[in-house]
Amino acid sequence: MVYLARNWQMKLLTEVVPELIGKWQDVVPNHFNFLDAFYGKPHRYAYTFQKYVFVTRVDVEKRVFYWSQASSIDGEKCF
Known about the structure:
It is a single chain. This protein is mostly helical. The chain has one domain. The protein is built from 5 helices and no strands. Helix 3 (34-40) runs antiparallel to helix 4. The longest helix is centred in the last third of the chain and has 31 residues, at 42-72.
């Protein structure tokens, strides 16, 4: 019973953020497909692809974090 309670509490604290596969497949301005390039020539594109994935994931996490912080702030407490 304790496990179920802890599992339920963890579900309340976690949020699933989907991967940005579409963004990795269409990098502007040349509409370059990093994902295909990575799978086609991993020795050439592994580092670049992983860095781009990291940057895009951090960007999404920042947006989710700021949105969750902004939605939890009450107007009276903010000013």
